[in-house]
Amino acid sequence: MSHIHNKKAAEIIKKIPYITLATVSDDGQPWNSPLWSVYDKDLNFYWVSDQKSVHSENLRSNNKVFCVIYDSTMAEGTGEGVYFKGKAFELAEREVLVECPTREKPITFKGNDILKIYKVVPEKIWMNDDEKDVNGKYVRDIKVEVPQDVLKTQHLFRTL
């Protein structure tokens, strides 16, 4: 566990409102969708999508997902991302109020017959880093887990 990675992950989650959601169809075809989302104090992410979109249909048959929040605003070669796997759910409510730590006021998501509200619950979160040898030469990419309980307590997340 790395304090630096915990802090960087919190900064990226706070700064970037888009997640990239990866799903898989019944016949094993991958699908990737960039989505505008918000998150709550428990790091559950919410968005609204057409229930007939490919990712929405995929979620109904397989709710296992992979998400990336990537900070592409950085200079070339320096961008970083937060990765997480989890489970996504279509919410039954037609309206959901989300108290997002980075927003002054709660956000209301409204679903209807076409648009549905979705939530992803992360199971494991990490950042990538590189391993270097004793001379500082790149060896390989590694995953550095970012514990959710630690991430939830980062000072970058204000409560409402």
UniProtKB/TrEMBL annotation:
<dbReference type="Pfam" id="PF01243">
    <property type="entry name" value="PNPOx_N"/>
</dbReference>
<dbReference type="InterPro" id="IPR012349">
    <property type="entry name" value="Split_barrel_FMN-bd"/>
</dbReference>
<feature type="domain" description="Pyridoxamine 5'-phosphate oxidase N-terminal">
    <location>
        <begin position="7"/>
        <end position="100"/>
    </location>
</feature>
<dbReference type="InterPro" id="IPR011576">
    <property type="entry name" value="Pyridox_Oxase_N"/>
</dbReference>
<protein>
    <recommendedName>
        <fullName>Pyridoxamine 5'-phosphate oxidase N-terminal domain-containing protein</fullName>
    </recommendedName>
</protein>
